[in-house]
Write a structure and sequence with these properties.
Elements: H1 3-20, H2 26-48, H3 50-63, H4 65-79
Helix pairs in contact: 1-2, 2-3
Length: 85
Amino acid sequence: MTTPLTLACIWALAASLAAMAPGRFHWPAAWVLIVLGVPLLGWITFVHGPVVGLLVLAGGMSVLRWPVIFLLRALRRVATSTDRP
């Protein structure tokens, strides 16, 4: 297994451990996982191609689903805003 995929497995293990932690640690852990996961995803995509990169992205989005849901809600709110001049 290559280094980026090994690090992705460690990232997934850390995400699982963060999910088992008390609730007050979830959001700080999510931010750390996002900050570490974005460059890791780029590295995986660079080394293994876009198909593997998309699979790892889908796995990461399934683990960090609440930040993704909040982002989609915010984007929908901006897109449907009627405060245009």
